[in-house]
Specification:
Layout (H helix, E strand, L loop, with lengths): L2 E10 L2 E11 L4 E5 L6 H8 L7 E6 L2 E2 L5 H7 L1 E3 L12 H9 L6 H7 L8 H12 L14 H14 L4 E5 L7 H16 L4 E5 L2 H5 L4 E6 L2 E6 L1 H5 L2 H8 L2
Parallel strand pairs: 3-8, 3-9, 6-7, 7-8
Antiparallel strand pairs: 1-2, 1-4, 4-5, 9-10
Length: 247
């Protein structure tokens, strides 16, 4: 397994955001983490990437315990993610966003960001164009993030995650709020990424979205994994249906 998550627990007062959450992620597969709103899906991603500190539990990536590493070093270790609410710099261009992503190992990253001074590496522009073609973002490289539509910002966010050196992609609700046409396009992008050998973990609350996409599905309820298996198995799981329908 490329990523092993064992007994992750996070309490906020009496609320169990994560409750001994345990799951293993297989390499070069699409793993979906689903569950009703408030089940702990994004909290799990935040714990893996150290945006929050857990009360107990372990996260192991490629055999290395990363539980107590800081967020910057976890990113450098090979975990790249998107966010449900897109996080872009409105005063930076498409190209500048991707140049930052490609230079994630640069210890002077924040100085680069603040000064908008970019070292022009030989193949940067070509690589950036390849990534944008992969996600279908057909806009001039000098377009500012503030001039992109919501759907285009989602695609740029995905492109940034792909551009960062990584071994695993965490996608937090990649189709949230997009129109049906773009939804289909993003599904095809994710399938293409898998065909290129990517390991993908995605969060969704819509079971229908993951049924024809994921190899394995984990279902969260109240911060705990209540079921896992192939999509067809999950679709007919009584406990899963009760979690969604409130039975």
């Amino acid at each position: 397994m490329i990523l092993q998550i064992t007994n992750l627990t996070k309490h906020y007062g009496g609320i169990h955001a994560l409750d001994k959450c345990t799951l293993d992620i297989a390499p070069k597969k699409i793993t979906a983490i689903i569950g009703p709103n408030g089940s702990g899906k994004t909290t799990l991603f935040d714990a893996i990437t150290k945006l929050i500190t857990v009360d107990e539990g372990r996260v192991v990536l490629n055999g290395k315990d990363i539980t107590n590493m800081n967020d910057y070093d976890i990113a450098k270790s090979g975990i790249s993610r998107t966010f449900q609410q897109v996080r872009l710099f409105k005063n930076l261009t498409i190209k500048e966003h991707l140049e930052i992503a490609l230079r994630v190992d640069d210890e002077k990253l924040f100085k680069v960001l603040l000064n908008k001074v970019f070292i022009k590496e030989k193949n940067n522009t070509h690589k950036i164009k390849e990534i944008l073609a992969l996600v279908g973002l057909d806009k001039p490289l000098e377009t500012y993030a503030s001039d992109l539509s919501y759907g285009q910002r989602k695609l740029l966010d995905l492109a940034i995650a792909i551009a960062k050196p990584h071994t695993i992609l965490l996608l937090d609700e990649p189709v949230a709020g997009v129109n049906p046409k773009l939804r289909v396009e993003i599904v095809n992008i994710i399938k293409k990424l898998k065909s290129l050998g990517e390991t993908i973990v995605l969060i969704e609350h819509d079971m229908n979205f993951v049924m024809g996409l994921a190899d394995t599905v984990f279902v969260l309820e109240a911060g705990r994994v209540i079921a896992n298996g192939k999509p067809s198995e999950i679709q007919n799981n009584k406990r899963v249906l009760e979690a969604y329908l409130g039975g």
